[in-house]
């Protein structure tokens, strides 16, 4: 492997606090943009389309592999493809594959090999073994096909990812090439999503947890308050008689209903303060029906919870809750901003 330089131990090195300023960052981001533009301007779209079609048409599983940072990108792309639910997709560690894990590959599977140089020893060793198993091989390299890219010759399809250079001070660390690999892989996956006409429900079925899952799966009925949790009153009730109901249910409002629970309007703690300021002692003689908002925003129980949040935040002014009503305007619940946030939305 040659001789590596001997570095001074940290305790012997002179102490100096390193700093990075905006002045230092600006030219690096500009250089990164130029390198990415170089990639976009020179990418062969016919190669990209062939790659996307191969993934779409794969009769079996799709495996991604790579060494080092390219391996990390390969794992991420594999996980994103797997999350769509169109095909079995996964990451195959090249060294582990050569020690038994290649048994996961069956005839008709696709193996995508990511390599900046196109000359990684581990991938060159893996390619003929995967071919012997009946896999279709695709290489993604930044070295053009030919003698400088032996991996492309070992594969059925090569996609050249044009690389002008790395923004690393030595031009060595893969800080631009990996960005190109990631952009390419994710963009192709977005194209596959469109080609397969992936629906929100299909996507949601593979993301039951986390922010994505909650946004796509949770409906209003899943997070709303109902039955005894509802702050209900009649329009003929005196305002001051309903203070306990207004404050005890944690909604900051009253839902004004008739005898059959049809929604008449809403009365909020803000309405209480404004009425008290405007009417003074006369508030003791006012009914909820006289001061309530008779045209409140509402939502249905089957609406998505994220839609409720958007409706709360919509103009002309945000609100903290929405009455939940059915098709006959009968109250069946209330959803609050606090409840949405507590649910992780």
UniProtKB/TrEMBL annotation:
Record keyword Repeat present: yes
Protein name: Arabinose 5-phosphate isomerase
Record NCBIfam families: kpsF
CDD domains: CBS_pair_SIS_assoc, SIS_Kpsf
Domain SIS: 51-198
Domain CBS: 224-283, 292-345
Annotated site (Catalytically relevant): 69, 122, 166, 207
InterPro entries: CBS_dom, CBS_dom_sf, KdsD/KpsF-type, SIS_dom, SIS_dom_sf, SIS_Kpsf
């Amino acid at each position: 492997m040659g001789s590596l330089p001997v570095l001074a131990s940290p305790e012997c090195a002179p102490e100096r606090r390193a700093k990075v300023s905006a002045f230092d960052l600006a030219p690096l981001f500009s250089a990164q943009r130029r390198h990415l533009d170089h990639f976009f301007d020179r990418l062969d779209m016919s190669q990209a389309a062939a790659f996307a079609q191969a993934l779409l048409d794969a009769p079996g599983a799709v495996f991604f592999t790579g060494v080092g940072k390219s391996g990390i990108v390969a794992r991420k792309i594999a996980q994103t493809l797997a999350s769509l639910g169109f095909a079995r997709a996964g990451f195959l560690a090249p060294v582990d594959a050569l020690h038994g894990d290649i048994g996961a590959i069956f005839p008709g599977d696709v193996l995508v090999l990511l390599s900046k140089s196109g000359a990684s020893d581990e991938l060159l060793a893996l390619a003929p073994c995967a071919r012997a198993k009946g896999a279709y091989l695709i290489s993604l390299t930044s070295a053009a096909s030919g003698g400088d890219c032996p991996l492309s010759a070992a594969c059925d399809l090569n996609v050249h990812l044009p690389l002008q250079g790395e923004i690393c001070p030595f031009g060595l660390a893969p800080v631009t090439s990996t960005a190109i690999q990631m952009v390419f892989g994710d963009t192709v996956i977005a194209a596959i999503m469109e080609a397969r006409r992936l629906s929100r429900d299909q996507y949601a079925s593979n993301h039951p947890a986390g922010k994505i899952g909650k946004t796509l799966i949770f409906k209003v009925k899943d997070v709303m308050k109902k039955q005894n949790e509802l702050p209900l009153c009649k329009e003929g009730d005196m305002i001051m008689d309903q203070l306990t109901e207004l404050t005890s249910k944690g909604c900051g409002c009253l839902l004004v209903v008739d005898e059959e629970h049809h929604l008449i309007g809403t009365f909020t703690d803000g309405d209480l303060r404004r009425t008290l300021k405007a009417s003074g002692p006369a508030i003791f003689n006012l009914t909820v029906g006289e001061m309530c908002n008779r045209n409140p925003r509402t939502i249905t129980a089957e609406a998505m919870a994220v839609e409720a949040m958007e409706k709360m935040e919509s103009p002309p002014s945000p609100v903290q809750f929405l009455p939940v009503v059915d098709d006959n305007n009968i109250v069946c619940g209330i959803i609050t901003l606090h409840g949405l946030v507590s649910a992780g939305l």
